[in-house]
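no rush on this but wanted to send it before i forget. theres a chain ive been looking at and ive put its sequence and its fold in C-alpha cell form underneath. please have a look and point out which stretches look like helix strand or loop to you. thanks a lot i owe you, the record is right below:
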Amino acid sequence: MRDNKSAHNSAVYDARIENVLPYYREYHFQIMDMVNSMGFKDVKWLDTGCGTGTLAMRVLEERSDVSFTLSDPSEQMLAVAKEKLAGRDIRYIVGTSQELEFESEFDVVTAVQSHHYLQPDERRLAVQKCYNALRDSGIFMVFENIRMTTDESEAIALSRWAKYLEEHGNTQEEIQFQMDRRGTEVLPITIEEHIKVLRDAGFKSVNLLWASYLQAGLWAIK
C-alpha cells in the first residue's frame, strides 16, 4: 500500500523515481543553478511537497548558508527525509501547500512533483500560499507533470514516455498503472495554464525554466 500520493511507497521512492521520471536529477540541478544565479546569501528556503528531502540534501552538499523548512503531507516521506538529513538544523512541517500560513518569510520556495495532484481551485490556492510565503523579489520554482496542448500531441508524448518506462525496467502492468493515473490521480495542466496560474497569484515575472517528456519547470519572481 502506498503511503503518499506518488506512485511509490516512501521506502522505495528514491530507488524507483528515476525509472519513472526522465531527467529527475536535472530538476534539482536546474533549481540549484537558478538560486545560485539569484545571488542570495543566507538563504531561507521552503520546499513544499519535499518528499524524501533529496533536493535539500543536494543543496546542503553545496551550500552551508541555506536554512530549510521542509513540508509534506506524508509523515512517512518526512521520516525518510529526517533520516537522510540527520544532524541538520531543519524545520519539518506535516501538511500541504494549501495549508501553509507563512507571510513574506522565504527567499526561495520550491514545489517539485507535488501540485499536479490538485484540483484547479486547490492548485490556485497552493500557488497563492507559496506566493504569500515569499519575500519581495523572492523566487518560486515549480516542477510538475504537464499536459500537451492537443489530444494528438498528448498521445505522442504518452507513447514516448511509455517507451522510456519500458526501457527502464517497468513491466507492462506498471506502465499501464502510470498511464491510468493521468487524469485521475495526477491532474496535469499545460505550460500555458501553469503560466496563467502563476500570473494570477501576483508574480511579476513568470518564465519557463526547463521541459522534457511530460514534465516542466517554471520560475517566478514575487
Q: What stands out?
A: The chain has a mean pLDDT of 93. The longest strand covers residues 134-145. Helices lie at 13-16, 24-38, 54-62, 75-84, 120-133, 151-167, 172-181, 191-201.
